[in-house]
Please model this.
Amino acid sequence: MAAVESARPQAAKLRWGELEEDDAGDLDFLLPPRVVEGPDENGIKKTTEYRFDEDGNKVKVTTTTRVRKLGKARVSKKAKERRNWAKFGDAVHEDVGSRLTMVSTEEILLERPRAPGTKEEPSVSEGLGPVQPGAVLMVCRTCGKKGDHWTSKCPYKDLAQPPETFVERPSTADAASAAPGGAGRSAYVPPSMRGGGERTGTEMSRRRNDENSVRVTNLSEDTREPDLLELFRTFGPVSRVYVAIDQKTGMSRGFGFVNFVHREDAERAINKLNGYGYDNLILRVEWATPRPN
Amino acid sequence: MRPILMKGHERPLTFLKYNREGDLLFSCAKDHTPTVWFADDGERLGTYRGHNGAVWCCDVSRDSTRLVTGSADQSVKLWDVQTGTQLYTFNFNSPARSVDFSVGDKLVVITTDPFMGNPSTIQVKRIARDPADQTSDSVLTIKGPQGRINRAVWGPLNKTIISAGEDSIIRIWDAETGNLLKETDKESGHQKTISSLCMSADKSHFLTGSADKSAKLWDSRSLTLLKTYQMDRPVNAVAISPLLDHVVIGGGQEAVNVTMTDRRAGKFEAKFYHKILQDEIGGVKGHFGPINALAFNPDGRSFSSGGEDGYVRLHHFDPEYFSIRM
Model:
């Protein structure tokens, strides 16, 4: 490492007009002598030299080198003599700044092999495979298989649905034995009759709202209420949103609740947004309470 | 440890050799110019100019005054180590592959490749004390093995010559008569070309490395197979530690993987194995290309590796190396 500073030559004693170009070499007496600060306890050696550069500026060159002892060697007499041999062949014109030999900047270790049974690199399993950054994970709600196909393209469309995934009430794909006509399904209940309907005023509506509550999990850290509102309002009027915030860090704890005014909006939201990729995470959207049937 | 990188060669390295005292390291490469370095800090001392072809192998006399090099330019040259002057040239009619001084440095065994109808040969030449008296006469010439002989060395007490090569059979020849004394059989021996051979410090056993991804340890007198070390890549270079019960094996790359490997990453490693337990001790990474040459310093405290990337990496072991327990 070299630090270079330059300053106008102090020609106090000499009249610069009287100096000629090629007298520059004689000005060496103007330069302070070279100072070598020997290797200190860290092995750092600093050499401070002064010289004139091409433009006649006085230049201070500080070279900092680390002198590092690599090891002790018991050297035979012959070996010591060989140390003083003259360079020959292509090495004759080598100067000290030659970059042929250098110490590695990296520390290289003799890496011991991992004993069998200890932790290996966790291999990607479950058939997920490496997910490209930026790609959306395809989730199929019918069979629950991730990364393979979307719900509409599900090859297992008519198989029994896993119990967790929401079943759209008016139209379901039940067990294969179910007749396509609709026999065996519960009788149609008009919206006004479902869950009691809006019989009374706000008190009821508040209660309805709590039953229309949707829990959203696997939110990213910076998701806040306005984000959820924005996301869910497309399905219908939302009465309340809440995102759990860690008071200490101010970041989302990863889950929140959205209360819809209308239940069917909540249903649609759950169907559409469960498995939806939002801010690099896959949302899990479900009923907040044990699923009312 | 902090390896010292020496980039004196523009072409891949072929061979590395320390002198007896361990203060000089000789490197041979495909760039025609063997080089000598100081083995403690890697500073270059000089180069030996004169060859016109890749230099495959070298050996240095015990007093470090004479260097012999074998080259693809069909010659073996004798050099003065200190000044770099050529003392003598042995000419052949095919590329010279391997050279080895005998104990006492009076004889040198040289192998030549099969070339233009000439079969591969093992030749023994006498080295005179005074270069002026040097003649080209062969003391002994052995013809026989099919395929290239990659390495031929003197056996214990100069009584035998051990050769190994492309036909994957190791042969022991009588050094005076040239008769074949022993050879390995196909089942216990290597299955593919033997690329490298290294004698132990006392010459009682030796290690061979082969393209069949294994290295095998043999007894020098009886040619019995003692140990086998399994690698995951073809072996290009082997070395036995003179101090501890370790061997180091350096390899190349499966041809299949050439296009898939990230060569910039410095991932090629020299693998250390326990000589007796055959277990892998560890690997030292850093080369950007397959490792072609390995050598231990005779004091066992450092080793160097030469790669296809043209670099020689000189490693001084950390104190932890000497207390490795298996």
Notes: The helical segments of chain A are 77-83, 202-211, 225-232, 263-273. The radius of gyration of chain A is 40 Å. The interface with chain B takes residues 70-71, 73, 75-76, 78-79, 82-83, 85, 87-92, 94, 98-104, 106-113 of chain A (CB under 8 Å).
